Amino acid sequence: MVQVTKTAVNPDINELKTQLKKLNSKAGQMKMDLHDLAEGLPTNYNQLMDVAGQTYEIYRQIDELKQQLTKLERGQ
Q1: N or C terminus: which one in the chain shows less Cβ crowding within 10 Å?
Q2: Which residues make Cβ contacts (< 8 Å) with residue 69, sequence separation at least 6?
Q3: Distance between CA atoms of 32 and 37, rounded to whole angstroms?
């Protein structure tokens, strides 16, 4: 009987990659929303800080996940 060995990928790495894909998609949308809001200034200027804060937070999370992913990948 032939045994097939599968290269095991750390589930944490796969989970982080999935989270990154989701956040990157959301970040792209937030970036477009921020751009649209900026183009329309001064209309809706009162939303600027909220949208900018949300956009910042998403990109901060992406950066954090990328750092975690790099550490995990180097550990293998």
Answers
A1: N
A2: 13, 16, 17, 20
A3: 8
